[in-house]
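This week, look over our next protein:
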Amino acid sequence: MAKYYGPVCKLCRREGEKLFLKGARCFTPKCAFERRAYAPGEHGKSGQFRGRRESDYNRQLRAKQKARRVYGILERQFHRYYEIALKQRGITGLTLLQTLESRLDNVVYRLGFADSRAEARQLVTHGHFTVNGRRTDIPSMLLDAGDKISVREGSRKRTFFKQLPDLIENRTTPTWLNRDSKELSGSVLRLPERSEIDANLQEQLIVEYYSR
């Protein structure tokens, strides 16, 4: 399975903003972005290239890289999602974001069952969740309206999941999902609208990047 194994805090510093890739740690003083809010590398701290006019290509590239990093997806798979969105009817950029949001690892994260998408991906890979009653370990599985996600019965005995009902009470759930905190389950009601997806993502620039 393709995965980025490098230091994720460098990804936030490269994009110049917090991407909240480490969950709760990003809200503490331990966050690397709080201590080094400049780009990584030889010229990051000096700001040697700061102030230069940003090209259209660079803006498009950064928008694409940011979206990839937020959802934890490598280039080949991200481009495949773009091709899927391109073939569907509707606005390509919005369809792309809806496809990314409907990934199983993202839905687990959005339901509050994990502190970050990386943690959600690990939980799914270890087989702790079922989709419509069937155990699955594929984080990239795309869900549709009506699909039900539950913590596997055999996993509920683990300490992590025993404590989960109390933890998720403080985590909000988007309106396109339904969560049952007591039963540790949730369902997809519909695809998210644009206003329910990260407003900092610039899908039009992503489309422009791949349309070159």
User: Anything to note?
Assistant: The first strand starts at residue 129 and ends at 131.
